[in-house]
């Protein structure tokens, strides 16, 4: 019963959040602020994680394909497809659920417990729309860019680590990342990132918006938000993979 | 004028407000007093619509708030200002941006007009040289004054204050009380203040509603309190020894 209560309340909140804004100009300005705070500020961590991810995938592929029957350029191909299909979309989504999701829950949750949300409502402002809509649009907008960046840095990571440990030569690796490229893989992952972006923004926003109590409850809500977002990302990954392939 | 009729409100089966009816008059400071947990905040939040009441009616002048749809309520709320217990200023906005926010959202004034209005309101609450500071950088008393400035920036007809003196020293509390009273008289607002500060009751209590265990227990003015024949009210208001002595002296003098 509790599950259905939360699902119902989540969709009711979304309906309020996606209603017509009071003043488009202010929401538009807020959108840019959110793109900077939630998106651009995540570029650094995405780059660092992706470089390591690409390097580790390259090593794993190399160790598991040490047979002379496999040409070494397949290491580059393996890294590229793994990054595009799963790591740069799903794993990055899970990491961003931790970074961006907890940020959203704690910000909105703190506003709730300090009555700032009530204050917006008293002014006649749709607090759900004002707080959630710009964040959701910003995250959905920025996620595909983060995905592309993640693939790029992951490939760079492989290019650094592969030749450095002697697993593959740089020309073979570069040849491999261009070999048998299927553009649909990118389309598929782009679609996934849009879904993940939506989940990463709206689920933590839900947990933050309905928090009750004080600082402790905001912390608990942040944890719940990240856990639930992660589970839903994996569920949607499964569903979308089944639907889109 | 705000009229409430037979308000009932319960949470999870527990009745918090029981059949409360009263009238809050404009140009006067209307106080809701009562012990902690008596239902004051729930009553105030029910009046402004932050809590939906189970039964009863709330009238803003002749407009039935309980029967209004979401759109009409939003419109009416632009006539309301509210000062929350903790100030509820937006952390990420400066003092000036906090006060300007309702103007940005709901008016088409020019930047110059908005600035003039913001300066006027901040000046009215005696905030100087703090326009560009953030809420975390100013004192609790200043935060309350900024919250009052933000509440009056749209020139509201109704002002609500939820424990405006909580956490403030007696001197600053007096300043806040006098400020709210002055603004109420100057702008002819219907002001409802939720408080358990006895200094406020004695200083600015034009109309006082005493709530006990979710019920209206007594209603009157600060002058009536001395002679009120209500045990719960007497225990609550004159819990302090100094107030008790002062009351007894006054009664003796009158006799």
TrEMBL record, chain A:
Q: What is the organism field in this record?
A: Sunxiuqinia elliptica
Q: Which domain of life is it from?
A: Bacteria
Keyword Transmembrane on this protein? yes
The protein's name in its UniProt record:
Phospholipid/cholesterol/gamma-HCH transport system permease protein
Please give one Pfam family short name.
Answer: MlaE
Q: Which UniProt keywords apply?
A: Membrane, Transmembrane, Transmembrane helix
Q: Name one GO molecular function term.
A: phospholipid transporter activity
Q: Where would you find the membrane-spanning parts of this chain?
A: 43-63, 137-165, 185-211, 223-244
From TrEMBL, chain B:
* A Pfam match: ABC_tran
Keywords of this entry? ATP-binding, Nucleotide-binding, Transport
Q: What lineage does the source organism belong to?
A: Bacteria, Pseudomonadati, Bacteroidota, Bacteroidia, Marinilabiliales
Q: Which residue positions does the secretion signal occupy?
A: none
Q: Which PROSITE patterns match?
A: ABC_TRANSPORTER_1 (PS00211), ABC_TRANSPORTER_2 (PS50893)
- What GO molecular function annotation could you give as one example from this UniProt entry? ATP hydrolysis activity
Tell whether Cytoplasm is among the UniProt keywords.
Answer: no
Listed name of the protein = Phospholipid/cholesterol/gamma-HCH transport system ATP-binding protein
- Where do the ABC transporter domain residues begin and end? 2-238
């Amino acid at each position: 019963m509790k599950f259905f209560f939360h699902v119902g309340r989540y969709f009711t909140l979304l309906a309020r959040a996606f209603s017509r804004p009071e003043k488009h100009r202010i929401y538009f300005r807020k959108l840019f602020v959110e793109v900077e705070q939630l998106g651009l500020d995540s570029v650094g961590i995405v780059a660092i994680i992706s470089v390591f991810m690409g390097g580790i995938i390259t090593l794993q592929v190399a160790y598991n394909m040490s047979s002379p029957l496999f040409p070494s350029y397949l290491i580059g191909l393996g890294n590229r497809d793994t990054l595009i299909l799963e790591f740069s979309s799903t794993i990055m989504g899970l990491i961003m659920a931790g970074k961006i999701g907890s940020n959203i829950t704690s910000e909105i949750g703190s506003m709730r417990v300090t009555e700032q949300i009530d204050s917006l409502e008293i002014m006649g402002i749709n607090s759900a729309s004002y707080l959630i809509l710009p964040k959701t649009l910003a995250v959905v907008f920025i996620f595909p860019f983060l995905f592309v960046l993640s693939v790029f840095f992951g490939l760079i990571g492989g290019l650094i680590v592969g030749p450095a440990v002697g697993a593959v030569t740089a020309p073979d690796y570069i040849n491999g990342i261009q070999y048998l490229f299927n553009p649909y893989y990118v389309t598929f992952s782009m679609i996934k990132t849009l879904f993940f972006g939506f989940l990463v923004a709206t689920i933590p926003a839900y947990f933050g918006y309905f928090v009750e109590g004080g600082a402790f409850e905001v912390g608990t809500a942040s944890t719940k938000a990240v856990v639930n977002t992660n589970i839903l990302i994996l569920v949607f990954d499964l569903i979308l993979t089944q639907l889109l392939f | 004028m705000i009229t409430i009729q037979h308000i009932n409100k319960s949470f999870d089966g527990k009745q918090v407000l029981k059949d409360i009816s009263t009238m809050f008059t404009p140009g006067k400071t209307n106080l809701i007093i009562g012990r902690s947990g008596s239902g004051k905040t729930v009553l105030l939040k029910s009046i402004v619509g932050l809590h939906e009441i189970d039964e009863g009616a709330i009238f803003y002048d002749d407009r039935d708030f309980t029967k209004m749809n979401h759109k009409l309520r939003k419109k009416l709320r632009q006539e309301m200002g509210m000062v929350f217990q903790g100030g509820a200023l937006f952390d990420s906005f400066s003092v000036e941006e906090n006060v300007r926010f309702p103007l940005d959202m709901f008016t088409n004034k020019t930047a110059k007009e908005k600035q003039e209005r913001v300066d006027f309101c901040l000046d009215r609450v005696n905030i100087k040289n703090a326009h560009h500071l953030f809420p975390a950088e100013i004192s609790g008393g200043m935060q309350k004054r900024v919250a009052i400035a933000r509440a009056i920036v749209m020139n509201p007809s109704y002002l609500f204050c939820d424990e405006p003196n909580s956490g403030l020293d007696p001197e600053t509390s007096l300043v806040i009380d006098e400020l709210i009273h002055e603004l109420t008289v100057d702008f002819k607002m219907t002001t409802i203040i939720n408080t358990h500060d006895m200094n406020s009751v004695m200083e600015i209590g034009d109309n006082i509603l005493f709530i006990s265990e979710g019920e209206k227990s007594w209603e009157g003015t600060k002058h009536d309190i001395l002679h009120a024949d209500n045990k719960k009210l007497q225990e609550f208001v004159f819990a302090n020894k100094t107030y008790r002595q002062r009351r007894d002296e006054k009664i003796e003098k009158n006799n």
